Amino acid sequence: MSHEIKLKMNDVEQGLSGLQTATQALEASLENDMAVENQLEIVHQLNELNTGLARLIENYKGLLLKNEAATQQSVETLFEMDELLSNTMK
Question: Pfam families recorded for this chain (predicted)?
């Protein structure tokens, strides 16, 4: 059983780039003010829920982008350490 961690930097960068692109494209397309003329309480509650959901989606996007950046940094550090270790073993 091998205890190696094998990463292909190009594959990782491609995957992280795809995640970043998909995250930035994520949009909350919810009706902001549903039935303005309607006096039903449920419409007001739906408007509040939609506003909260839009904020939640924006927060989620921010977390995904931070996670992508942290993963990118971790992969780069892993490759740097691998290079350093391989140079000391030569």
Answer: DUF5344
Enter the pTM of the model: 0.62
Q: How far apart are CA 28 and CA 54, in angstroms?
A: 5
Distance of alpha carbon 14 from alpha carbon 17, whole angstroms: 5
Closest CA to 49 of 36, 34, 27, 61: 34
Mind listing the pLDDT tens digit for each residue in 43-60? Answer: 788 888 999 999 999 999
Interatomic CA distance for residues 72 and 58, integer angstroms: 21
Give the helix ranges, DSSP H, for the chain: 9-25, 41-89
